[in-house]
Write a structure and sequence with these properties.
The structure holds two protein chains of two kinds. Chain A is an alpha+beta fold. Chain A has one domain. In chain A, the strands form two sheets. In chain A, strands 5-4-3-2-1-8 form a six-stranded antiparallel sheet, with no helix packed on it. Chain A has a five-stranded antiparallel sheet with strand order 7-6-9-11-10, covered by helices on one side. Chain A is elongated and about 100 Å long. The N and C termini of chain A lie far apart (94 Å). By secondary structure, chain B is α+β, with helices and mostly antiparallel strands. Chain B has one domain. Chain B is built from two helices and three strands; from the N terminus they run H-H-E-E-E. In chain B, a hairpin with an 8-residue loop joins strand 1 and strand 2. Chain B is elongated and about 90 Å long. The chains are: A alpha+beta, B alpha+beta. Chains A and B meet through helix 1, strand 7 and strand 11 of A and helix 1 of B.
Chain lengths: 210, 160
């Protein structure tokens, strides 16, 4: 390739040292390898952060539906007393007595709140941006849902069959990810959190089964 | 070519050594990249499964609500009236079509080549079994009986 006079490094005569070309080539190669390595490490780190977010979102979704469904599992008396898009009142068993519980969205605290009749509100689920409840009603007595509405009040004229719970959850994002997000993610600019939707249906037990 | 540090041309790295080192580094980067791609694909599959389970649970709720019209729940026509799910009174058939449209427009979009089916084991009467199946394209899915190759299948069995 090159003659020994130009491409060797030695300490003591004119043949010594690296040629300029070798230096440039070595530096270029080193820079290329470092760039590839850094890009790979950064990509690996980003992948790790995205994986953490996705797993968090999944866990959050499963947890929220499990907690709500479990909490509403032991209804008694008239069951759901009333409800709106962002709140619901349910009769639940508490120490063998049927007590009214109110659930709603605590907007400033970004959580769901819950209160027993006569008590005070306390946080029930954290990381909730929005709540949208819809009530599946039978208004013509055929034991089938014929109306989905966002308002419900106990009445002899209709029966509540299902409650469709739609939550918008907040997921914290590492600063390392910066603004480099996946295309289908919804970003909350003000609070720097990711938003994702969780939807599930609560079937009110024993409606039309008597 | 020799890069010497001392007094002769025998010291230093040979071109072959440099090339080997470069080749090995490239292979390592390639392995790292492939591992990452695979891990990403597994993550997407996990997300799809999570999504599919949410959908099956919603379909099951509506099968319970409209046992006589369950076939319309998987109708692919986008003929359902979205207002049936938002304050408009509708017949059971219209309601089931509205749900089918909602699922196709919102939830099934996130699963490639998704196919939702609801089928009764024998006759669709009270006490009989009914299976809700959702399948979509997923190369990572392991082969299972009744599920096409490179497709992921999840099923939910109910008793009417």
């Amino acid at each position: 390739m090159c003659s020994a006079a130009t491409d060797t490094l030695s300490a003591h005569h004119s043949e010594a040292g690296f040629s300029l070309l070798e230096l440039v080539l070595s530096t270029g190669l080193a820079a290329l390898m470092m760039t590839a390595l850094m890009a790979s490490l950064m990509q690996f780190n980003r992948h790790k952060l995205v994986a953490q977010i996705m797993v968090n979102q999944q866990a959050q979704g499963q947890l929220v539906s499990a907690q709500v469904l479990q909490d509403w599992g032991d209804v008694c008396g008239s069951g759901v007393v009333q409800g709106s898009a962002t709140s619901i009142s349910i009769k639940r068993l508490h120490q063998a007595t049927c007590v009214t519980y109110d659930y709603g969205l605590n907007t400033p605290a970004h959580s769901l709140k819950r209160k027993r009749a006569g008590g005070r509100y306390s946080s029930f689920l954290a990381g909730v941006e929005a709540l949208d409840l819809r009530y599946g009603l039978d208004t013509n007595g055929d034991c089938g849902i014929n109306l989905w509405t966002n308002h419900y009040q106990t009445s002899v004229n209709h029966r509540l069959h299902q409650v469709w719970v739609r939550l918008t959850m907040r997921t914290e994002v590492s600063r390392q990810l910066g603004g480099n997000l996946e295309s289908d993610w919804v970003w909350h600019e003000q609070d720097s959190v990711l938003l994702h939707k969780v939807g599930f249906i609560w079937r009110v037990a024993h409606v039309c089964s008597e | 070519m020799r890069i010497g540090f001392g007094d002769g041309s025998v010291h230093g790295f040979a071109l072959l050594e440099v090339l080997l080192a470069l080749g090995l580094s490239s292979v390592m980067l390639l392995v790292l990249y492939s591992a990452q791609r695979h891990s990403q694909a597994v993550l997407v599959y996990s997300q799809q499964l999570h999504h599919a389970n949410q959908l099956l649970s919603q379909v099951a709720s509506q099968v319970w609500a409209y046992p006589q019209h369950y076939e319309l729940l998987t109708s692919e026509l986008n003929a359902g009236d979205a207002m049936c799910l938002a304050r408009r009174q509708c017949t059971p058939a219209a309601m089931t079509q509205a749900w089918a449209t909602y699922w196709h427009q919102h939830m099934l979009q996130q699963l490639p080549q998704a196919d939702l089916t609801v089928a009764c084991a024998d006759t669709c009467i009270a006490g009989q079994g009914l299976t809700i199946t959702l399948q979509w394209q997923q190369k990572l899915a392991s082969a299972s009986p009744g599920c096409p190759l490179e497709m992921a299948c999840v099923a939910l069995q109910l008793t009417l």
